[in-house]
Amino acid sequence: MRVPARVAAVSCLCPLVVFLCVVSQSCYGTQVNLSPHKNQTKLFDTDKDSHHRPKRGWIWNQFFVLEEHIGPEPQYIGKLHSNSDKGDGTVRYILSGEGAGSVFIINETTGDIHAAKSLDRERKSQYVLHARAIDRRTNRSLEAESEFIIKVQDVNDNAPTFPDGPFSATVPEMSDVGTSIFQVTASDADDPTYGNSAKIVYSILEGQPYFSVDPKTGTIRTAMSNLDRETRDHYAVVIQAKDMAGSVGGLSGSTTVNITLTDVNDNPPKFPQKSYQLYVPEQAPVGNTVGRIRANDEDEGQNAEMTYSITNADAAAIFTITTDADGREGIISLQQPLNYEKRKVHMLNIEGSNAHPDSRFSHLGPFKDSTSLRVIVGDADEPPVFSMDYYIMDVYENSPAGTQVGTVIAVDPDSTNSAVRYFIDNEEDRPLYFTIGVNSGVIRTTDVLDREEKAWHNITVMAAEVDNPRMVSHVPVTVQVLDINDNVPSISGGTNAVVVCTSTKAGQVVQTIRAADLDDFANGKFSFFVPAEHQIKTNFTVKDNSDNTASIVSSSREGFGQDQQQDFFSLLVVVADGGEPPLSSTTTLSLRVCVCQGNTRGRSNICQAQAFLSSAGLSTGAFVAILLCIIILLAVVILFTQLRHKKASKEPLIHSEEDIRENVVTYDDEGGGEEDTEAFDIAALRNPRSEPAWFIIDCVPREISQSAPSLLLDGHDIIQQILQQKVAEADCDTRGPPYDSLQTYAYEGLGSLAGSVSSLGLTAAVPELNYADLEDWKPESHLDVTGEKNTLWQTGNLQNILA
After folding, report:
1. How far is the C-alpha of 608 from the C-alpha of 596, rounded, in Å?
2. Mean pLDDT of all residues in 230-242
3. pLDDT of the residue at 67
4. Which residues form the Cadherin domain (predicted)?
5. What values do phi and psi take at 489, rounded to 5?
6. Following DSSP, what letter does each residue of 442-501 receive, concatenated?
7. Considering only CA atoms, which of 531, 512, 522 is closest in space to residue 585?
8. What is the three-class DSSP state of 360?
9. Quick one: pLDDT at residue 30?
10. What pLDDT is stored for residue 755 in this prediction?
11. Residue 768: phi, psi to the nearest 5?
């Protein structure tokens, strides 16, 4: 085999003969002769005229060595040989490149190349080597370095594998035959370009007859059309991959594919029973759940969701059925109250159907089922039931107490039919005008009713069972008080004077009057007229308007002048109602003739004297009230001024400081000064009327007691009388304020153990006094105690006292 050598860019390649022995399927050795003449680049004729450059072409053959060599000796690959080698051993062969010296070894004398190790193509498929030939003696290069490649030839030493296995896949149940489920792919490390070592064929080891696999692509498909999830929902399918195109001796690997069948709505719902029974007490509240029912469906998820309905109309009016949040159960509720006494059993026809049917499986039958539910109503003790939800009764006013108003009726709805007692509910303790018969239910009045005071009365009647008083029911009762003609009609505003303008002509309407009546409108058809005896020679008459009003009409032919002598007239008017019996009243209307103000703008006539009040928007009464307020305010101001002037003109009790200094009597008992507000009540001392009765000083002049002892003035009655008169004057004088130097003591008390502090009451002998020396006395203090009233009196000299 001849191989061209690579030419270097800066030097020429010397010819190198390479003998390679290649192990192949047909032979184990091939000699390769590499000569410089044969390795020169050949210039093609077509390129001679193209820039005069030779075009080099390199053609190398590939050399093979079998992998996985297990022989005892190194595997021989080939031989290097140079034309300069004469066989005398002077040529040395050198090998370099990938694996040189370790994987590949060369005999330097002969040029034989061997593989020292077993090679693995899957690890490294080729090696690039370089060879040189040198003179052993001079080390001169005999051949330039030449490159060649050794390829490792593949053998079938790797089995197919599934790196990502095992696998999981899903397929809907009831899928058609041939439905693709999953595709598996095996890998083989052998050389796919050499022989059949990497040619894989797939087969199924487990999973038949339900599934199949494509031998070339590895696609798994369904092999049956009736795969039912409800029967079996999981399959483990084992797939084998074999190389060598599946021939005998090929290597194989396997993996598992876990196939799960997903659900489809292929199963209709079904009730476990054809009939059910349910007990419900009659007092079950409306809207509450009374029971649950469920139809089974072998499907899952939304394929098993249900809808329920009651198909018979009479039961659907009393009961209702809905689906729970999971969509599986039917919830039965009440939408009308149950009554054991009226109906003891209810039959419900219930139908359950799939909420999401699949049309592909409609041939399997209707996807719904029905059953019957027998509801038994349980008897319970119920409160009495009134014959009406509410009662409206009436009674005439002024009817005597005890008048029957009406009757309420309540019965026990239970089978026991217990007796019922009646009461009037009065939790707010309001006055009751009615009473009820405990056993009869008859409502009567307890007082005379007045429609004009209160026309409607609302009460609440209770009915309780005798056997079970806790069973109580209530009903509202409204009583209307009917009107009778018991109120006399009157003229509205009949006390006000009617203004008649002087310009009023005969036959002219002066004013329109209306009737007022507290009775109902049925008694309010009023009529007006003037008594016949008062219709003679009158200036006014009354015209009935037949609409509950009457017009006062002037009948004076001469009219009313400003110089007329009479300004006020009276008109007697009778007003009667239309009741049975009819009632009437007589009213005397006052009419005033005056010059009227013009432009009253539709209002009643107004005299000119009242014009300024009307223009200000004030009535006569309001104007009078304002004047009275002003007068009262002026009177209060004047009175307050006089009182202040009188108080300022009063003379003071003490005229000067000198008098105080000369008349002060000093005692050991010291006062608290002017700031002492706790020792006495100055207001009480100023006004003796505010004191208690026992504290009031008797200011009535009285005779001087002849029995009062007098040690100092014995025999001198005139002086004693003067002193007592002065004491009485001091007791009665309340104008002066109680200063520290002048204090008035009213009453000491009875039976004092200390006795009197006055020296006048002493019984011991006293030296006689010479009255001639009275003029030489200096100012002294004396304490005079007279009877029950004791007064501290400041004295100067005796002359001052007598004066």
Report:
1. 5
2. 93
3. 80
4. 82-162, 163-271, 272-386, 387-491, 492-612
5. -70, 160
6. EEEESS---TTT-SEEEEEEEEEESS-TT-EEEEEEEEEEEP-S-S--EETTTTSPEEEE
7. 531
8. helix
9. 39
10. 54
11. -70, 145
